[in-house]
Specification:
The complex is a heterodimer of chains A (77) and B (779). Helices cover 17% and strands 42% of the residues of chain A. With 77 residues, chain A is an alpha+beta fold. Chain A has a single domain, classed as Ferrous iron transport protein A (FeoA) (SH3 type barrels). The longest helix of chain A is centred in the middle third of the chain and has 9 residues. Chain A starts with a strand and ends with a strand. In chain B, the strands form three sheets. Chain B has a seven-stranded mixed sheet with strand order 2-3-4-1-5-6-8, with helices on both faces. Chain B has a two-stranded antiparallel ribbon with strand order 7-9. The radius of gyration of chain B is 31 Å and the shape is globular. Classes of the chains: A alpha+beta (77), B alpha/beta (779).
Chain lengths: 77, 779
């Protein structure tokens, strides 16, 4: 199965999270917001200037920067 | 009385529930050491009263934001009788993540399942009975907005047994590890050992500080990374056990919220729409020509009549004058006029009372001009501050504010800030006070400090008269410039100074990584009227309290400084007695009533002005000026109380310099007063510009200072004052010297280049001033 980082997603793509890396604080925050391995997400949109991005995860809308999205590895659907 | 802590995610209706529970008994304070609102109140709806503390909205109990630390410590240390955990039924999964953590503490918990109406509307269903069975604690359906289910919630809450042992949803998957860690805490006699044990397994910073905790963690987890496993297990448990309590209806069409979002965060239209909304807010708050009706009528060749031309009676003119004068006023201006009418009449009443009681003229001057005048000058802002607060609260409550941060984050990250810093800054154009309070939405302390410090550079409403009258004065004395262009250029200059300062701070004293921007974009919804009004009422109380303490004291001090000489001789004189002998002059002074100060030169303020005047020589309004030159220095001082005082000080003195009375409160009068001072003191054009810039970038008014002091992290306020003084001094000096001698720009550029080089080298670790200094000392 092909995996790629959330930061490389295009609008409309969805998949299942395989791994969350990153430094302590960012990783913790991602976990607390429900970005955990196994969760499914869909890329909703990019901000008008291309960054940050908006995703749907666990039934709500979450926004994060591309730098932070680069910590999230996703298996494409 | 049993006490309960209200806990839940942000945007789940927690504030609404709190307001519904406590009503008018609520009061707002601060959590010790941090600027997060602490709201407390009493529930009186049941047989037994209960006190409620509203914990800040949180997603988790990790110790990474002040909100999380507060909530966690409150529950663990203050040991409330129970926790009311409000859960948004439309977003069960993420909301229950916090619930699973709360359940691990040895505290009784009751779950309030909110927004059930929205769930049903979407065609879904949540089974509260089933949820109750799985969680093992009471679950009550409520609607915080409509106030239903609240009585039942509180009945069950007070009926909960006082003791409860923590339970964890992780016991199945991680039983052994948890038991090992728990043993460590039990041995230490810690309360809520289960909660602490699990936090330790997550390598929680606060837990690891405890003695022996690191070893206990190594024993329990055997070096494995448990953080991801625990978060994952929580969610797994929720989706397999609890989410089954939720039955989904038909798979969703686009909801209304999605449709709104498509427009508001549109790739092309997002920013224009945002600018229009922002413009509308300022227009509705400050404009004296609502929807440009007056301007349009004039452009159409059919101007609306001015108020005085309508032939109304005095009373009618006063009443209509509140809302109309050749154009319709905006709501903000109408409210300000109402406030002005009220305060004028109170002042008049006091004045009459003093006269009836036979009080001396100086009593009238002290009470009416100084005390009431000072307090009312500040109170005069209240309507417009509240208007701004109202509009920005609506943006916040509807969920639009989060989208603005989303849209603008990219731009702000360049300066080391997040998109959220935009709102406080832009509010600064209205008033620094609400702007400073609004920085609470910024999570990072350094980002907050940097933002609060530059807010005054976004020239506020009260500084506008300084700009227009000085620019007008410049035009009438030297015949150069264009008032609008100068005003506009000064606003831009302020913004540039702000950007440069933020860049400088984020690279030196307020250095730190750009805070993460991982946040929920809540669904759009209509704001609750009651919530908005309660919010505004809180702000009003806060502001009025400030106006009556610090402003009161400072205006009295300024009045004394202005009215007395160094030998404590009272300088104010009765205008009639003074000028009657000269009928020609007296005729030109018809408007003066009561006391005037023609000996201001001898006043204490004058003395201080002259004393500090040389300090301003490099800025162009110091010793190079003639006779009344100290007025600029004095005006900068009185401006600290409220920025209107700058022009008021000119007004008072212009009368003497120009030899005629000037009604500086009228717009033309203010320009005249400024022109008189510019003409009378021999200040140069760059000097005037430098004076404007100085007032824009220096220490803001006392009310704003008091707010900044309350909002800044401990110990930062004195440095902030120093920062404001230095910035205004340096920037004004640059404007003056370059304006007077163009070639000095090369010196300034060279200095700037050197400073940038030093900072870059230092940040690269190649050069350390502190270290070099220490080495020198040792030698």
């Amino acid at each position: 199965m092909a995996t790629k980082f959330l930061s490389e997603f295009t609008v409309g793509e969805s998949g299942k999270i395989v791994r969350v890396t990153g430094e302590g604080r960012i990783r913790r925050r991602l976990f607390d917001m429900g970005v955990t391995p196994g969760a499914e997400l869909t890329m909703r949109k990019k901000a008008p200037l291309g960054d940050p991005i908006e995703i749907t995860i666990r039934g709500y809308e979450l926004t994060l920067r591309k730098v932070e999205a680069a910590c999230v590895e996703v298996e494409l659907k | 009385m049993k006490n309960f802590a209200l806990a839940g995610n942000p945007n789940c209706g927690k504030t609404t529930l709190f307001n519904a529970l406590t009503g008018s008994t609520a009061h707002v304070g601060n959590w010790p050491g941090v600027t997060v609102d602490k709201r407390e109140g009493i529930y009186k709806g049941g047989a037994e009263h209960a006190s409620i503390v509203d914990l800040p909205g949180i997603y988790s109990l990790s110790p990474y934001t002040p909100e999380e630390v507060i909530s966690r410590n409150y529950i663990l240390d203050e040991k409330p009788y129970g926790i009311i955990n409000i859960v948004d039924a439309t977003n069960l999964e993420r909301n229950l993540y916090l619930t699973t953590q709360l359940l691990e503490m040895d505290v009784p918990v009751i779950v309030a399942l909110n927004m059930m109406d929205a769930v049903e509307k979407a065609g879904d269903k949540v089974d509260a009975k089933k949820l109750e069975k799985v969680l093992g604690v009471p679950v009550v359906e409520i609607s915080a907005l409509r106030g239903t289910g609240i009585k039942q919630l509180m009945e069950r809450a007070v009926a909960m047994p006082a003791e409860r042992k923590g339970t964890s949803v992780l016991k199945g998957a991680l039983g052994a590890e948890i038991a090992a860690a728990q043993a460590f805490y039990e041995q230490e006699g810690q309360s809520s050992p289960l909660f602490h044990a699990i936090k330790l397994l997550e390598s929680d910073e606060l837990e690891l500080q405890k003695k022996g905790a690191k070893e206990a963690l190594a024993r329990a987890a055997g070096g494995a990374d448990m953080e991801a496993v625990i978060a994952d297990e929580r969610y797994k448990y929720i989706s397999s056990n609890l989410a089954s309590a939720k039955v989904k209806g038909e798979e969703g069409q686009l909801t209304k919220s999605d449709k709104i979002d498509r427009v508001l965060t549109h790739r092309v239209w997002a920013i224009p729409i945002f600018l229009v909304i922002l413009f509308a807010i300022f227009h509705l708050t400050f404009s004296e020509d609502l929807f440009y009706i007056g301007a349009i009528a004039e452009a159409a060749g059919n101007p609306l009549p001015a108020l005085g031309d309508l032939g109304l009676s005095a009373g009618g003119e006063m009443a209509l004058g509140l809302i109309y004068d050749g154009a319709v006023f905006s709501p903000g201006v109408i409210l300000t006029n109402l406030m002005g009418l009220l305060t004028d009449n109170i002042t008049l009443g006091f004045s009459m009372l003093i006269e009836v009681c036979g009080g001396a003229a100086w009593v009238d001057s002290l009470v009416c001009d100084a005390v009431l005048g000072g307090i009312f000058a500040v109170m005069g802002f209240l309507p417009q501050i509240l208007c701004l607060f109202l509009f920005f609260s609506i943006l916040e409550d509807t969920g639009y504010m989060a989208r603005i941060a989303f849209v603008l984050d990219r731009i702000f990250r360049r300066f080391g800030l997040s998109g959220r810093a935009f709102m406080p800054m832009i509010m600064g154009f209205g008033c620094s006070i609400p702007a400073t309070i609004n920085t609470r939405t910024l999570a990072d302390d350094k980002e907050r400090t940097a933002t609060i410090r530059v807010i005054p550079f976004f020239s506020c409403g009260a500084k506008l008269p300084i700009l227009t009258s000085m620019a007008g004065g410049l035009l009438s004395v030297f015949g150069v410039g264009n008032v609008d262009a100068i005003t506009y250029a000064m606003y831009i200059a302020g913004v540039c100074v702000a950007i440069l300062s933020v860049l400088l701070m984020r690279n030196t004293t307020q250095r730190g990584e750009t805070p993460p921007f991982i946040m929920e974009l809540p669904a759009y919804h209509l704001p609750g009227f009651k919530n908005l009004m309660l919010h505004l009422w809180d702000k009003t109380k806060h502001f009025v309290k400030k106006a009556f303490t610090i402003i009161f004291a400072s205006t009295v001090v300024i009045w004394i400084l202005q009215s007395f000489s160094w030998g404590w001789e009272f300088l104010l004189q009765d205008a009639q007695e003074l000028f009657e002998a000269d009928p020609v002059k007296w005729a030109s002074l018809q408007d003066i009533e009561g006391l005037v100060n023609v000996r201001a030169n001898e006043s204490i303020l004058g003395g201080i002005g002259m004393l500090i005047q040389p300090l301003f020589t490099p800025l162009g309004f110091g010793s190079q000026l003639t006779a009344f030159g100290w007025v600029f220095a004095a005006a900068a001082l009185t401006g600290l109380v409220a920025k209107e005082n700058v022009i008021a000080t000119f007004g008072a003195l212009a009368a003497i310099v120009a030899g005629q009375y000037i009604d500086w409160e009228a717009e033309e009068g203010a320009v005249e007063a400024a022109a008189a001072m510019i003409g009378g003191t021999g200040i140069s054009i760059p000097g005037v510009i430098s004076f404007i810039i100085f007032n824009m970038t220096t220490i803001p008014c006392f009310a704003a200072c008091a707010t900044a002091r309350a909002e800044l992290p401990e110990g930062k306020f004195k440095w902030t004052l120093l920062f404001w003084i230095c910035t205004s001094y340096i920037v004004s000096c640059a404007f003056y010297t370059i304006g007077s001698w163009w070639w000095t720009c090369f010196i300034w550029l060279a200095v700037a280049a050197a400073v940038i080089a030093l900072i870059v080298l230092r940040n690269l670790g190649k050069f350390d001033i502190v270290k070099i200094f220490r080495r020198k000392k040792r030698e």
